[in-house]
Amino acid sequence: MANDWSIKNLYFFLVCLVTLFLFVGGAISAINSAMQLAIPDQPNVPLTQVYFREYRETGEQPVFDPPALEELEKRRAEQEREYRSYQGWRKRSLLNSIALMIIAAPFYLYHWKQVKPKPGKRGFENEN
Questions:
Q1: Of 30, 36, 80, 116, whose CA is between 20 and 30 Å from 19?
Q2: C-alpha angle 82/84/85, rounded to 5°?
Q3: 19 CB burial (10 A radius; 0-12, 13-18, 19+)
Q4: pTM metric for this prediction
């Protein structure tokens, strides 16, 4: 039994622990990124502030100075660019998480195979 806790086996156990944490973290991140792609977050601000920054309440009467049509089109194009950029970031995050899982899994499996007890060396079997 003392042979099971050698420095070599302790190293294998520690590598297994670290790679298991990496795999689980990658899986959690992959699920989160996939959910963000499937169900994107919506801003929690009033629609008038998103599209019409000129809308403001002053005193008793709200004031609205509508912008020119070109300005509205420019804002919409900017929002579309930001949305595409954010979607690209979500996809990269998902791929990074999957890559982390793919890299951690073989390290874990290899080191876990090295730790397996050898036949005939368990407990009291050889103590005659």
A1: 36
A2: 60
A3: buried
A4: 0.64
In a domain, 44, yes or no: yes
User: Which residues, listed in sequence order, are joined to residue 114 by a DSSP beta bridge?
Assistant: none
List, for residues 42-64, the tens digit of each pLDDT value.
Answer: 665 555 555 555 555 555 666 66
Q: How far is CA 95 from CA 30, 90, 109, 124, in A?
A: 8, 9, 22, 48
Highest mean pLDDT, choosing among 9-13, 61-65, 83-87:
9-13
- For residue 19, tell me if it sits in a domain: yes
Residue 48: inside a domain: yes
Angstrom distance (rounded) from CA 17 to CA 107:
11
Give the span between the Cα atoms of 33 and 17, in whole angstroms: 24
What range does the domain containing 76 cover? 13-115
- 118, 8 contact by CB (below 8 A): no
Instruction: Report the C-alpha gap between 33 and 91 in whole angstroms.
Output: 7
Is 53 part of a structural domain of the chain? yes
Residue-averaged pLDDT of the chain: 79
